[in-house]
Amino acid sequence: MTHPPSGERRSPGPAKHRPPLPVRDGLNPTRIVLPHDPDVVVRFPYALDYLLDRFRDDSDRLLEKVALGEVVTGHGEPLTPTTPYEPRGFLYLYRDPPAHEDRIPFEPEVLHRDEDLLVVDKPHFLATMPRGRWVRETALVRLRVTLDLPELSPAHRLDRGTAGVLVLTVRPEVRGAYQEAFARREVRKVYEAVAPLPPSDGRLALGEPVTLRSRIVKRRGVTRAEEVPGEPNAESLITLSAVDETRGLGLYRLEPHTGKTHQLRLHMASLGLPILHDPFWPELRATDPDDFDRPLQLLSRSLELTDPLSGLPRRFESRRVLSEWGPSTPPDVPDAQVPGAT
Fold first, then answer.
1. In the chain, N or C: fewer CB atoms in 10 Å?
2. CA distance 227 to 263
């Protein structure tokens, strides 16, 4: 891959299609694609009829939104009772967020901000973006509102339970360039985790990296990912970087070379070293989302990339610490010492 001369900005390319409704209260409008199945097309000559059938439990609220002009077509025209059904056409509307969300009492800390990027230190328990029960109580929505950045968008994602470096784009015009850098695995990520010490006769020894490869599948409707037989599609480099013999714990440096769901957590569990306070491994267990005393001991410590627009190297590092370990040695030093040792 070639890059422009140092300091010279590459054109981000054309902006992608923007929804005809703006971000409101930090939330994107929902896009609905009208099916092109012949049976559906025959049943619904008008687009509103289809919506009322699809959201029949909320039909009164839907009609209110239509009356207010808050449901529009892909062409930006307000939906009316006589708007024709357009197979493969788009409709946009604002979905109502949950009436109540429990407050997550932790805030993302800004590490870097410029005209293109916002880099934050995401806390444990705060989801990256709206999903499931979490809508307003997410890093994306909070940051859009508090920093007045309505076009903010994640360049990648961290699990709700994982803390650390999170990169977001500020302008839609540059979003694709950074998201593609992550998709092409051109970003070097280093994580830290606290987990039990490996057996003395195991694969892991202090300061000696081990590469783990497997095939990971995440099935729709199933809470956690799983390893299955077949061609590996996930690779992680795992290093035991420090030990605490008294508590039988180790600090691990984790470098994912792929980005499968739950990859690091699953790879550590497959070694018999589940990350401390992981509710998914070794056994799936119910957790209280309001119990903040046992955060998953996994931290996105640092992230490095060659900027796809300027060609300059960029590096961002978390200031957070894992509560079960304490301040750590910088991640590029593999032979860290036990906390408190000299």
1. C
2. 9
